[in-house]
Amino acid sequence: MVAALRTARALRRPLGHVRTISSSHHAAAEKRYYPPPEPFVGGESVSIQPSPFSTFGASPDLLTHYLSLQPAPLTLRQLMAQGGKPGQALTPEQLLSSAQHTHRELPIRLARRVGGFRALPFIVGSNPFISRIARLYASSFETLVKFGPIHTQDDNSRFTAVIEDLVAAHAQNIPTLARGFQESRKYMDARQISAFLDAAIHSRIAIRMIAEQHLALSATSNDLRHLAPKTTNNIAQSPHSPDPDLPPEGTSSQVHHEYGSPTAVGIIETQLSPARMTRMCAAFVRDLCEGTLGAAPQLILEGDLDVTYTGVPVHLEYVMTELLKNSYRATTENFFKHSGSSSTADMPPVIVTIAQSANHVSLRIRDQGGGISPQNLPHVFSYAFTTAGTSAELEDAEESGGGPYAMQAVGGTGGDALAEMGKMGLASGLGTLAGLGYGLPMARIYAEYWKNGSALDLVSLYGHGCDTFVKLPRHIELSNTVI
């Protein structure tokens, strides 16, 4: 009898301290993204009671320890300083320092992502697509935590091989999460989903930038052949570029897909050409549009085509690909709808204008795709909003490895995003031009990531077309934005 009473008292004891998160402090604070915003912050106070067992396969003790640590407040200026001068290989000591910093920093940030998944409602975290990504983060966390200390170049070689594998494993995170949250929408409101995805995407960008920066520095330090300048005579002009005034590709061009531009510090390009990037993205989107709709508009580039700035190529790559996809699709569909002709000779072009000021580079993407209806316009920057998209299209996009949405997986991939996107999209019949609904909100995150006046805005003239404006800071190396 006494034993039974003791057992009953034990069962009534609390299992442990339950963390309660109140958003009152955050609501009054200035909006910022470091540390990345946690799920469900904003509005009323929300109590989060994660199960002590829901670690998605990660060691509970290790996870608890790393969740108690804070990420280092790293700025782009510091990241560039670690990389030395553009096109210059690091010394062995500098490379080991970079490896040790990356090895120390990534597990802390990965633990925070696992913690974010733990805070989801149980039924949402149990969704097979969402739990797949949560377990992937947990597995990556365990892998890096259990990797031994890095003291030699051989240690760094093994470490970079591990990082490369992890980067590849996470390539389809965003399309997979998109599918999961589409299936779980009735269990979370839009505010909660947006808060979680904002945190996840900002954190993802930072994690991949840190990982890819070290991979790029290791590649250029160990294989100086990547630094050989590319001559214009060896580069064929794109067959889809109708603008003869576009400058030829030189050493600062973004025909990359390998580390080591002589004007780059790791993955940070000091002479990033918006004109070059626009033409490269347009070539892919044109093929995608022709394969999906049977035709595509021409591209006209105008303005300051020679301007360059300091930036992360893959960020601009994603933004321009997404915006051009929208313009190409809308222009083609609107033309066939109203022209009454199968000839595409009179299809209006998509016009990209590039301008510069002392502190910013601006791009305007103008199309005659009919614009966005007034009832849809307030929602175009909301997650999971799409004007296209049967369930079959969404399944095809996810099951084919993301199709054109492979670009949404990036956030500092060292320039191989279009290559991967091309392999996945073209291999699956070019995928679809629309469907997941994450394009514009993610494009805005990438465009505005460095703040300093950056912006992505859209103006719709319903019945005629859209103008989309991208404003980017010219000198992000001076930004105090914390990664």
Automatic annotation (TrEMBL):
EC number: 2.7.11.-
Entry GO CC: mitochondrial matrix
Pfam families from the UniProt entry: BCDHK_Adom3, HATPase_c
Region of interest (Disordered), residue spans: 232-258
Keywords: ATP-binding, Kinase, Mitochondrion, Nucleotide-binding, Phosphoprotein, Transferase
InterPro entries attached to this UniProt entry: AK/P_DHK_N_sf (IPR036784), BCDHK/PDK_N (IPR018955), BCKD/PDK (IPR039028), HATPase_C_sf (IPR036890), HATPase_dom (IPR003594)
Subcellular location: Mitochondrion matrix
Gene Ontology MF, one: ATP binding
Domain Histidine kinase/HSP90-like ATPase intervals: 311-476
Main location: mitochondrion
GO biological process, alphabetically ordered: regulation of glucose metabolic process
Top enzyme class: transferase
Family: Belongs to the PDK/BCKDK protein kinase family.
PANTHER family on file: [3-METHYL-2-OXOBUTANOATE DEHYDROGENASE [LIPOAMIDE]] KINASE, MITOCHONDRIAL, PYRUVATE DEHYDROGENASE KINASE
Annotated protein name in UniProt: Protein-serine/threonine kinase
Organism from which the protein derives: Moesziomyces aphidis
